[in-house]
Amino acid sequence: MKFADVFKSADWKTEKHVPVIEAPTKVKAGEKFTVEVTVGKEIAHPNTTEHHIRWIRLYFKPDTGNVYDLGLFEFNAHGESTEGPNKGPAYTEPSAQVTVKLNANGTLLAAAYCNIHGLWESTKDISISE
To answer: Is residue 5 helix, strand or coil?
Structure first.
């Protein structure tokens, strides 16, 4: 078995588990830009003690060379409480932003983990201008 065998993918507009990558498609070499990654962008994902997104991870794969790990975003509060499930005072939503600088064309890759429905992925190509 390989990771490719367990990752699921779909159109984020119709599937609430797919991480959505929002970033420009073209950026200047070495210039900062913001990448936002969200699960449940079009169709809200539950954020309950029983069913939630645990984490999102963002990578960059240049057209040539190795993959680079840009960030891990954990979401640790889902309404847990000593009073019972979904009675807690805090919930973290599965959305994160990171500032990035790139010097090569490539692809952003996002992976997200739902505690019920497993691993989901998406990609976005980025091109560099001088």
So the answer is: helix
